[in-house]
Amino acid sequence: MRNPKPKEWLSSDWSQAKIASYKPFNFVDGEGVRCSIYLSGCLFACKGCYNKIAQNFNYGTPYTQELEDTIIEDLGQPYCQGLTLLGGEPFLNTGVAIKLCQRIRAEYGGTKDIWSWTGYTYDELLKESEDKLELLGLIDILVDGRFDISRKDLTLQFRGSSNQRIIDVPKSQEKGEVVIWEDCVDSERYFKG
């Protein structure tokens, strides 16, 4: 597992604007029916990573306007709750992620939520580059922190290790401190006080 200094890893230096896969209408990458985009490239290299192939920035296919249009159309289905950004590392692919999230906000406002997984902690992101902060501001729910195989717990909701948190980003930004997502069913087990 690698621990970057603030602004050490920049999307502009690493991203190849590729996606590992796009999965419309799934039930596993957050609450409700979701469209999930897996962005290629990650530098954290967590031991036991469930999507190791997507750590390669050159893996997959280029992000295209056609794919973006498909995602926007899929999100328009009334039963689809929102978009999920995964990877790889979405915050090392901000050029793709910001463009897509901005379009979702422009076309759907707040009617579709945006979730993202990241190896960064919320506190680390607050010290990061402007593009990472911009992406953070477009997200509703952030599952933060590196996967830690020594803290692996498959009973957790939407995450793989007990150090990871499910964060309500707008509430956290409003309060100036981390606010755990109110629907986290195991929050009292790990996030007391």
TrEMBL record:
InterPro entries from the entry? Answer: Aldolase_TIM, NrdG, Organic_radical-activating, rSAM, rSAM_sf
Necessary cofactors: [4Fe-4S] cluster
Q: Which gene encodes it?
A: nrdG
Q: Which domain of life is it from?
A: Bacteria
The family line of this record is:
Belongs to the organic radical-activating enzymes family.
Originating species: Bavariicoccus seileri
Q: What is this protein called?
A: Anaerobic ribonucleoside-triphosphate reductase-activating protein
GO MF terms held by the record: 4 iron, 4 sulfur cluster binding; [formate-C-acetyltransferase]-activating enzyme activity; metal ion binding; ribonucleoside-diphosphate reductase activity, thioredoxin disulfide as acceptor
Q: What does this protein do?
A: Activation of anaerobic ribonucleoside-triphosphate reductase under anaerobic conditions by generation of an organic free radical, using S-adenosylmethionine and reduced flavodoxin as cosubstrates to produce 5'-deoxy-adenosine.
Question: What are its E.C. numbers?
Answer: 1.97.1.-
- Keyword Metal-binding attached: yes
Keywords tagged on the record: 4Fe-4S, Iron, Iron-sulfur, Metal-binding, Oxidoreductase, S-adenosyl-L-methionine
Matching entries from Gene3D superfamilies are given as: Aldolase class I
